[in-house]
Give the backbone structure.
Amino acid sequence: MRVHAYAAPSPSEPLAPTIIERRDVGPNDVLIEIKYAGICHSDIHTVRGDWGPRPYPLVPGHEIVGIVAEVGSEVTRHQVGDRVGVGCMVNACRDCVNCRNGDEQYCRGGMVATYGGVDRDGTITQGGYATHVVVDADFVLSVPEGIDFAAAAPLLCAGITTYSPLRRWGAGPGKKVAVVGLGGLGHLAVKIAHALGAEVTVLSQSLKKQEDGLRLGADHYHATSDPGTFTRLAGRFDLIINTVSAPIDVDAHLGLLAVDGTLVNVGAPAEPLALNVFSLIGARRSYAGSMIGGIRETQQMLDFCAEHHIGADVELISADKINDAYDRVLASDVRYRFVIDAATLG
């Protein structure tokens, strides 16, 4: 099947319209007519080679929602007409200890990324900046009716990337949670942490988004450009979620944690981050990382977001604005996630 898409021809060239081939629908496959695809900061890192060489031309996009157009003969969980989503992975070995535990994102054999990955049949995966995609049914999520469809797309990456560590490290009533950065990831971290019942603080470089942060569910908002912030908030938080994809002063942020507190990195800067081990030793603190979630947990996140009426704050764009959107993401000029209307790809 030949479909319209937008692809990066190389790390240095703008994305451009193209035609790609999708595989035939196999017995356990689902053909999805894509309605919306979110633009994730990791799309930009990937296509520009920040995280290593990639196969080109490359169609990005791993925040995908659409309608089931066809199902394979063995598919029982999804039917034609269903609202569905696809996130950051489309396959895994399914047999290693991590896959069996529902952590397919940490597959010992390497999970297959939605784009730029090598699938089990040896083909290179192409992502959601396209009109259609064929995905193994086991990696297709159900999108509840309670979430606006366009606003649901970023949940497939940004939503689960923040939900998973918030759940794992116990965000909830009685817990003080800080979110570093109020961007595509951060604004959803605030919404989800608030819905979980935690006391939420935003730590941003400036106060220019303070009104937004409080509207989204934050109880407090502080500027990290003010050195006094780190003095006033020292030892305050049980959990800090760092969502920014740029270097931060790790030691200064670790100093904001209470005894047994944890700083979790979900943003992925291209540069290494440094820390002084005494920032950990001094209060039995932990420094951790987290990457999306398994299929079961991602479905749990979608159901939770539907129950609490959580979707991303999105700016809907046509496909011919993708390159402009990339520049605006890098300039932090979006509130808070660009979403491509796939109807404009054809």
